[in-house]
């Protein structure tokens, strides 16, 4: 559309579709965490939109928010599974019910490392909510309790997801036109 300069090939998930899915996810989270405290852990930066829109749909009131920034390092552009903490949580996890909030699970390596790291801190529970999941995630053992959409293995941007730090602010999830990454 005109707002994206032709860089978006197609809209995969509209703002309305995303909102409806977050309604369902929040309802399940409300039911599952009834009577428990809940700590939402957003993974910067991609998860910011999901965190903002999912957390506001959770009606359960005993909820806190915290953030982590992690970085995979290795030679390639793909996640190596070896992860470095750039910003750690402020919260102490002992005895807490932790729900990791992600935008997308691609190889699953980031999440797999993160979940075992968080589990080592003595929480009462660690679960994961991700708006998107790619088929490649099946190769790694990560149990994701709340998945919004299983999507094809295409490069997607928007709604927090970037290509070279661009496109995060789009309100929808779209596929990137090939001219953007081939130039
Ligand atoms: C992206 C995405 C997930 C992760 C998924 O983050 O937001 O956090 O990659 O990839 P994986 O399943 O293959 O590990 P990225 O490292 O690009 O950082 P960002 O959130 O700041 O964009
Ligand atoms: Mn991310
Ligand atoms: Mg990224």
Automatic annotation (TrEMBL):
Annotated Gene Ontology cellular component terms: cytosol
Main location: cytoplasm
InterPro entries: HGPRT, Hxn_phspho_trans, PRTase-like, PRTase_dom
Keywords: Cytoplasm, Glycosyltransferase, Magnesium, Metal-binding, Nucleotide-binding, Purine salvage, Transferase
The enzyme's E.C. designation: 2.4.2.8
Gene Ontology BP term (one): IMP salvage
Recorded catalytic activity of this chain's protein: IMP + diphosphate = hypoxanthine + 5-phospho-alpha-D-ribose 1-diphosphate; GMP + diphosphate = guanine + 5-phospho-alpha-D-ribose 1-diphosphate
GO MF annotation, one: magnesium ion binding
Cofactors (names): Mg(2+)
Domain Phosphoribosyltransferase: start-end pairs: 16-163
Locations listed in the record: Cytoplasm
Record flagged with keyword Transferase: yes
Keyword Cell inner membrane: no
Pathway annotation from the record: Purine metabolism; GMP biosynthesis via salvage pathway; GMP from guanine: step 1/1; Purine metabolism; IMP biosynthesis via salvage pathway; IMP from hypoxanthine: step 1/1
Family note: Belongs to the purine/pyrimidine phosphoribosyltransferase family.
Record protein name field: Hypoxanthine phosphoribosyltransferase
Organism: Sanguibacter suaedae
Phylogenetic lineage: Bacteria, Bacillati, Actinomycetota, Actinomycetes, Micrococcales
